[in-house]
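Predict structure. Chain length: 86.
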Amino acid sequence: MPTFRQWSLRSAALAAVAASMALQTLPAQAQRQVPKIGSICPMGYVDMLNGKCSTLGLMTYTVQPTNGEACPEGWMNVGGGYCRKK
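Prediction complete.
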């Protein structure tokens, strides 16, 4: 039977793996709902007043955060800290 210390070490290891996975940049994919980065939502999204922006299921856009930089080639700035694939 594992001891409390062994469970604690396993839990810490799992938390570290989960944190590293969360920090990895995922490829852009179509989203109907995105986190609200700034004070406004990207063009085509509606503020849900819960820290998220949604297309209300009407459209699906491929967006990615700008991270304070210019949008890559083939993408356009849609405000709210996001770029959308052309």
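Summary: Confidence is low (pLDDT under 50) at residues 17-25.
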